[in-house]
TrEMBL record:
Main localization category: cytoplasm
InterPro entries referenced in this protein's UniProt entry, alphabetically: Ig-like_dom, Ig-like_dom_sf, Ig-like_fold, Ig_I-set, Obscurin/Obscurin-like_Reg
Coiled coil: none
Keyword field: Cytoplasm, Disulfide bond, Phosphoprotein
Organism name: Caloenas nicobarica
Stated name of the protein: OBSCN protein
Subcellular localization(s) per the UniProt record: Cytoplasm
């Protein structure tokens, strides 16, 4: 299985409280396994507040809905040994 790397990393975002924010990270291969999103070192799951999806097979997205002050912090995307933060 080829080593999946990060082609295009996360970008820092500034949003207002109550808004939604979307982070995108592009990887080198489709169907990447061992992918994880974190906020302040806490693993995020797909639920009503966090939407985790994959577009066109290679673009992994995380949308945080109706952000609050508690959502301030570092977002981390990890695929295998590679990470990107914003």
């Amino acid at each position: 299985e080829p080593d999946v790397t990060i082609v295009s990393g996360l970008k820092d975002m500034v949003v207002f409280e109550g808004d939604n924010v979307t982070f995108r990270c592009q990887v080198s291969h489709e169907n990447a396994r061992d992918v994880e999103w974190k906020l302040q070192d806490v693993a995020l799951q797909n639920n009503e507040m966090n939407e985790i999806s994959v577009e066109k097979g290679k673009i992994h997205t995380l949308t945080l809905r109706k952000v609050t002050e508690q959502d301030i912090g570092t977002i981390t995307f990890r695929v295998g040994p590679h990470t990107s933060t914003a």
